[in-house]
Amino acid sequence: MTETTTEMTVEAVLPPLLADILHGLVPLHLARLTTASDHDRHVLAERYADGIAAGADRLTAPGNFQDRHERSEALTALAGGLALGALTPGGVTFAGHHWCTAPHPDCPTTRTKETR
User: pTM for the complete prediction?
Assistant: First the structure.
């Protein structure tokens, strides 16, 4: 019996163009969410979760959407969900990319800056 392993690269999970788009959209969502009430954040979290479950994984390959509105809904759900995660202690890491709003132990963003 042979054992095979499949290694997924970050690029396979999150294509570079999508990563660039998220790095632009997440801060925009953060700017809006920092002034939102806890109730509004909760409502948005449910909406974003539904949007992600409805097919945000299709963002990883071109041609997976019938129209731009459907694609923008998926991008909004993913970027908004990541922004909500960035507001939590320790932030959020997705496919090797990290977003946070406050210093915290073992922050990949801080580690990267310190090693430059």
Answer: 0.82
Distance of CA 99 to the CA centre of its chain: 8
Task: Encode pLDDT of 87-103 as tens digits.
Answer: 999 999 998 899 999 88
Reduced 3-state DSSP string for 20-78: HHHHHHHHHHHHHHCCCCHHHHHHHHHHHHHHHHCCHHHHHCCCCCCCHHHHHHHHHHH
pLDDT digits (tens, 9 = 90+) for 28-62: 999 999 999 999 999 999 999 999 998 888 888 77
Q: How does DSSP classify residue 95? A: T
| Amino acid letter, residue 99 | W
Cβ atoms 51, 73 nearer than 8 A: yes
DSSP state of 15: -
